[in-house]
Amino acid sequence: MAGSTYAEGTVKNWKVTLGHLKEYLKSTQGKDDIPFNALDLAFLHTFQVYAATQWHCRKNAILKHIERIRKIVNLAVAYKWVEKDPFSFFEGKHDPTRRTFLTQSELASIGEKEIALDRLARVRDIFIFSC
Predict the structure, then answer these.
(1) Which of 8, 11, 12, 21 is the most buried (most CB within 10 A)?
(2) Considering the entire predicted model, what is its pTM?
C-alpha cells in the first residue's frame, strides 16, 4: 500500500478482519456497519461463536481478529468517541502453539521432487538451501 507505514502483510490482515466483520454484521444483524456505542461484550462473544462455526476459525485466529477490532475501539476511547471500552472485561488467551520442523527425509523428498517450471524449481532450491 503506497504511502503506508504498515507492512503489506499487516494491511492484508486488517482487510481480512474488516471483511469478516462486515460479513458477520450483514449475516447476524443485516447491517453493513455498527456504531461504537452499540458495541458490548456480547458482541465479541457472538463474533467468536460465528467465527468458529461459520469460518471454522480456531481460537488463536479468532483472537487475532478480536485484537484488531479492539485496537480500533481503543482509538475510539482515546478520541472520546465512546466513554469507555465496551470490551474491557473481555479475556482471551491464545493457546500455545508448537512448531515442528521438517526431517532430513522430508527435506530430501522436497529436493528430489521434479518440477517442470524453472521458476518453481528455483524457489524449491532456495527453500532447501535456506533450511
Answers:
(1) 21
(2) 0.69
